[in-house]
Amino acid sequence: MIFIIIAGLLSIYGSTLYRLQIVEGDSYVEKNAGIVASDSVVYATRGSILDRNGTILAADETVYNVSINRLQMLNSGNANEIVYTLIQDAVSCGTEYTDTFPVTSSAPFDYLADMSQSQRTRLDAYIKYFNLSKNITAPQLIEWMREHYRISYTMAPADARKIIGVRYELEIRVIVNTTDYVFASDVDVDFITLVLQRNFGCVTVETASVRRYYTDLAAHVIGVTGRISSEEEFALYKDKGYDINDYVGKTGAEAGFEDQLHGIDGSVTTYTDSSGAVTGVVVNSQAQAGNNVYLTIDLNLQKAAEAALRSTINSINAEREAENAKVSEDEAMDLAEGGAVVLMDVNTGEVLAMASYPTFDLSTYRINAGVLNSDPAKPLFNRATQGTYNPGSTFKMVTAYAALHQGSITPLTTIYDEHTYTAFPDYQPSCWSPVSHGMLDVVGALCYSCNYFFYTIGDWMGARAISNAALEFGLGEKTGLEISEVSGHAATPEYKQEALNEGWWSADTLLASIGQGHNMFTPVQIANYVATIANGGTHYAATLLKYVTSGDYSVIVENNSPEILNVIEDEETGFIGLLQQGMRAVASKGTASSVFKNYKVPVAAKTGTVQSDTKKVNTGVFVCYAPADKPEIAIAVVVENGGSGSAISTCARDIMDAYFTKGAESAGLYSDNGLAD
What we know:
- The chain is of the alpha+beta class.
- It has a domain of 352 residues: DD-peptidase/beta-lactamase superfamily (Beta-lactamase), CATH 3.40.710.10.
- The protein has 26 helices and 21 strands.
- The strands form six sheets. Strands 2, 3, 4, 5, 10, 16 and 17 form a seven-stranded mixed beta sheet that branches. Strands 12-11-21-20-19 form a five-stranded antiparallel beta sheet.
- Helix 16 crosses helix 19.
- It is elongated.
- The C terminus is likely disordered.
């Protein structure tokens, strides 16, 4: 019975196959003649970047792109006519189209002087593929391509070059096996109308995504995206499934959270007949949107920080320009060139605001990139994370802690300020004040920022104790921030020997003790160091990440928790408490009292003035935390050529004004201190 059933089934299958392939085979061949299958990528939507309150800072927006299907265009028999018409339509509508062929646009032709590495790599691949000479000149290449693509010699050279540019784009994508060619991106309705009216079967209008920025704030924090621009950069991404034409984060959070923001592309296969009509579409894999990243930044505080920094620098420069008008050019003071502000939660390491000045507009970055890159003011440079500065006297809490921890002094040790430190015959620095500060303990020395006191204790304990203490507070090391930052360096004999090939002198130790010499730190490091003092010695990693949600916002896929890097034990010694007392005295009766003595919340602060051998004006550094009795926030301000720390302290005050408000409390972000206006 089994054999009979199997034999019957095989007979049915065999007769059916015979009918389909032999009897009716010709009709199926005729029906499917000219059917072309083409694979295309369905690009995933990049995740959004939001502030801690859910305000969208950057997100993908749906736009329309115009694409050319190479195989269909070649089958049309009039490829050059289609390309030239499309170019003319784009030009008439003011639409930019993609042409990265690295040859000048008009005769006499030559290779582009600023050819990128990516363009060079592709051109080499093209030349190798067609077995052309490696030494082929641009005019020879244009001549060969004109013949190869059968472009009429009656056409003007410049017009022929336009067609060649598009034909090259279509060809190179096959040669290097990359994504389909998009002729024009983010096109307007006028160009779409012309394309549809032409009814070219090989030219399609498709939806795509483009990055939009919804704020003119936090440009350095948010960052920018761009195409993978070199083989070296592609090597970092190819194992993750990226295509060489993909857009990736280049700076800021766009780069720092690339793995979260970048989705997974899908793919479809489209079947078309000889007339260009679509006969079928098969979805091979669905695109998966990237995750959404919520930053720790509060946009309202970011606005206040940027406004305060800009206002402070503009005010300094206005006064300085007025003074410069009264003196000769040789006597004129340099203007404040730039600066940075970092506002941090002292109990988590979260960065609530981070400003760098001058800044730029993300929405016009692509248009103005060339100008921004060449601007001597360096608006693209994130001074908050990549600028390194002497901390000046804001470093004196480190020196004080080192001396206390080392046992070089006790909380009761007093030193008389003799104004000039004369322990060494070849280097005898003086205190900044022309009048002696008298007898001081460590709290009084911090309050009045007495250089003599810190020269003395620095000499007593040596440079190694100072640099070790700096590292405990995270100075001279990266903070753990997710965006690009530099480590800076603490002043050590090893650093000086390696960097300058010079030995260590007693003068180096004295300079290090007051935060100058070879101490170079970023503003975010300085803010984190002050936060560590404020919270009693817990050194947190700095972070910009609040949490991450899925692309549809339905699920939290990562909830960031504070990361403790180290803890400076202080319960038995009370050394951190002495530093806090000194900083509170600075704000109440010391070098910052003119701004904070009667402020609405108690403040702990420290001013810093960094002397320069090459500038006529000192760099100003200011740090503080508040409320002094129950710390919540720490602020670091650095202004290049700012004059002094006290001169820029109003910048921090303006930021605190924005923080300690009912608006902030009602948002549920900050603790209730009962002192809001």
